Amino acid sequence: MSLGHIGVTEPVISCADDCGVRDVLDRLGDKWSVLVVVELAAGVHRFKELQRAVDGISQRMLTLTVRRLERDGLVTRTVHPTVPPQVEYELTELGHSLTHLVKNLADWSLANRPRIEAARREWDAKADMPS
Amino acid sequence: MSLGHIGVTEPVISCADDCGVRDVLDRLGDKWSVLVVVELAAGVHRFKELQRAVDGISQRMLTLTVRRLERDGLVTRTVHPTVPPQVEYELTELGHSLTHLVKNLADWSLANRPRIEAARREWDAKADMPS
DNA sequence: CCGCATCCGTTACGATACTG
DNA sequence: CAGTATCGTAACGGATGCGG
């Protein structure tokens, strides 16, 4: 059945050493999922609201992203049969539990970004003069 | 200078809403980085050891991955001028601080995988009979 | 307004072969 | 052993246009 229409491909990798880490990362590792989750953590959003909020995401990618999140039970999608149509996205309880992890990531990143950038500059510097 | 040789491309996205989350995810979101970090969390490893440990990683990807981790100051690479050559990889302090985050991710994943898979099956089921 | 389909370029990844 | 170089493939992601 393939599920190709929302861009889902089954990973071949087995649970040898990761034992679960890859699983989350495959959901959150893509370019937009985390941003959408962060945005939804603030509350319910409509499609267009989300697109405006995430800044830079294309319509296509937003659709794919919310579909995948919905499939994994992290987001609910409720359609109001009005005209024009109105669709609302909301984090599930499972989705909310994820926001704590994301918060930790953000904190770590904020705290250590300077060190990372310093290391990066250093590395790049000595990589540029091999002579 | 481009750094293309280790597969590094500068992201265009700005810190509008993510404010740091993307930064970590860009490092850890790829297919192998986390696996390597997890493996190195257990202790020092030689190149070949790492490759055997990670299971499925190609020589090329292992090289690229450790280079990027090294560039970001998460891993040190020490070359012993012996013959045959011997190279050892080890987590830096910064790298070790990351393992806590990874641990949280793994825990969350382990705890919630059943729910995710259930949601996924449910979604797939109703997606398969549109009639 | 919502979102699916199509086309297309870019990037990531894997396989293989070759060097010190 | 520890890489580098080259090539091919497939996934990712952006732009556009159409339909409900």
TrEMBL record, chains A, B:
UniProtKB keywords: DNA-binding, Transcription, Transcription regulation
The keyword Transmembrane helix belongs to this UniProt entry's keyword annotation: no
Domain (HTH hxlR-type) ranges: 19-117
Top-level taxon of origin: Bacteria
Protein name (record): Helix-turn-helix transcriptional regulator
Pfam families: HxlR (PF01638)
Signal peptide as annotated in the record: none
UniProt cross-references to InterPro entries, sorted A to Z: HTH_HxlR, WH-like_DNA-bd_sf, WH_DNA-bd_sf
Gene3D superfamilies linked: Winged helix-like DNA-binding domain superfamily/Winged helix DNA-binding domain
Keyword Magnesium belongs to the record: no
